[in-house]
C-alpha cells in the first residue's frame, strides 16, 4: 500500500470519490466496507472464477490519462494465476495498433473487468501491468494448448485490489457453445426416452 493508500479500496476511492460519496450520502457505508477490506490476493473463489472465464476487458491509460479498453478472449482459463498477486495471459498477434502496449510503456496502471453473464457475476481487479517480450518459455507455458492464435508476447498483471459487484442490471446471456451443449444433451435424452417408449409399445403389442 502506498503512502496515500490507507485501505486497498483507496485504489478506486480517491479523495474526490470520497467527497462525492459524502455529499450523496453513501460515505458512511463505504467507510465501514473499506475497513473490512477489499481483497489484495487471489483466493480460491477468484481462482475458480478466472478458471471459467473465456473473456475479459483490459483497461489502460496513456501518460496524460487518455483511457483505452480492449477485449481479450480465449479458451476458458487463459487468464492464468501465477501466484497470489500475479495474473498473466498471452497477448496474441492482432491489428498491430499496440495502444495497450504503448500505454503500459508510460503508465503501468491497469484494470481487469471480468463478466460472467450466465451467472450474472462480475469481478473488478485493479493493479499494474507490464509487457514481457522475447520470453519464449513463458509465452509457451501460458499459451492455451491447441488454440488457433499466434502468441506475440505476455502481459503480467500485479494485483493491487479486487472486488465483486452485485448482479443488479446485469443481463443474463449464455455462450453459444454452452447453449449448444445443453441442447445436445436435451436431444440425446429425448432420443433415449423415445427409444424406451417404442420398446414399451413393442412389448405391449
TrEMBL record:
Coiled coil: none
InterPro entries: Pyridox_Oxase_N (IPR011576), Split_barrel_FMN-bd (IPR012349)
Domain Pyridoxamine 5'-phosphate oxidase N-terminal: 43-166
Lineage: superkingdom: Bacteria
Name used for this protein in its record: Pyridoxamine 5'-phosphate oxidase
Amino acid at each position: 500500500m502506498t503512502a496515500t493508500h490507507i485501505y486497498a479500496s483507496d485504489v478506486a476511492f480517491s479523495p474526490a470519490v470520497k467527497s462525492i460519496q459524502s455529499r450523496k450520502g453513501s460515505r458512511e457505508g463505504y467507510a465501514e466496507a473499506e475497513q473490512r477490506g477489499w481483497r489484495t490476493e487471489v483466493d480460491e473463489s477468484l481462482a475458480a472464477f478466472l478458471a471459467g472465464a473465456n473473456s475479459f476487458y483490459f483497461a489502460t491509460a496513456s501518460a496524460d490519462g487518455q483511457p483505452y479498453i480492449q477485449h481479450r478472449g480465449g479458451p476458458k482459463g487463459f487468464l492464468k494465476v501465477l501466484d497470489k498477486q500475479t495474473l498473466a495471459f498471452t497477448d496474441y498477434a492482432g491489428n498491430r495498433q499496440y495502444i495497450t502496449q504503448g500505454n503500459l510503456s508510460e503508465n503501468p496502471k491497469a484494470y481487469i473487468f471480468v463478466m460472467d453473464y450466465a451467472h450474472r457475476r462480475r469481478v473488478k481487479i485493479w493493479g499494474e501491468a507490464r509487457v514481457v517480450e522475447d520470453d519464449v518459455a513463458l509465452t509457451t507455458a501460458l499459451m492455451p494448448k491447441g488454440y488457433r492464435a499466434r502468441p506475440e508476447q505476455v502481459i503480467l498483471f500485479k494485483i493491487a485490489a479486487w472486488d465483486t459487484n452485485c448482479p443488479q442490471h446485469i443481463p443474463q446471456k449464455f455462450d453459444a457453445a454452452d447453449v449448444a451443449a445443453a441442447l445436445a444433451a436435451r436431444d440425446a435424452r429425448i432420443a433415449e426416452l423415445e427409444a424406451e417408449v417404442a420398446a414399451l409399445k413393442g412389448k405391449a403389442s
